Amino acid sequence: MKIAVLASGSGTNLQALIDQLHHDENSGVEIAVVISDRRKAYALTRAEEVGIPTRVVRVRDFPDRDAFDTGISEILDGYGVELIVLAGFMKLFQPAFVRKYRNRIINIHPSLLPAFQGAHAVPDTLAYGVKVSGVSVFFVDEGMDTGPIIAQASVPVFDDDNEKSLLKRIHIEEHKLYPQVVRWYAEGKIEIVDRKVLVKGS
Ligand code: GRF
Asked: I need a labelling partner for 104 at 20 to 30 A (CA). Which of 7, 50, 87, 91 fits?
């Protein structure tokens, strides 16, 4: 199964997908292209280092957001991508893009959704004072972090945590959970009933 990984930043989740799926011949998963909206995203370097094609698609190079989405869509379709994996991609898609790829776009978020949606999940988690947080992988719908949840993992929040220490614990879970979910998807184990996601055999 050909996937695309979209990333705006460091790409540690991309690295986990490269190590655990792309480099595992038995996974049946190939990262066909890595797309970023930022030229300097370290995720691009990670992809280039292992020979995965990369593309930069910047909002400022298009007249509007629909055109930006179309630019990305053309790349995805050109590479025959079957699953779009968002990994720290800091742009929201317009509804037409979501409709076109319904149930074929997944994202990862550093909280137990629906708690702490949005771009500041980790500081919001600390500010609220919850004792347990975690990671969610979900199908992207028209909202922000609102789509059907595929899998979650919890992490404890300690009294002396700061953003760095909590994020470190969250990343450990992300790097296990995201490759696992992509593997399930490739194996045809994921079924969506209304907004409930069922994973066969789990
Ligand atoms: C992850 O923490 C993920 O939950 C969020 O963005 C971050 C990306 O990190 N959506 P990285 O670029 O994969 O290191």
From this structure: 50
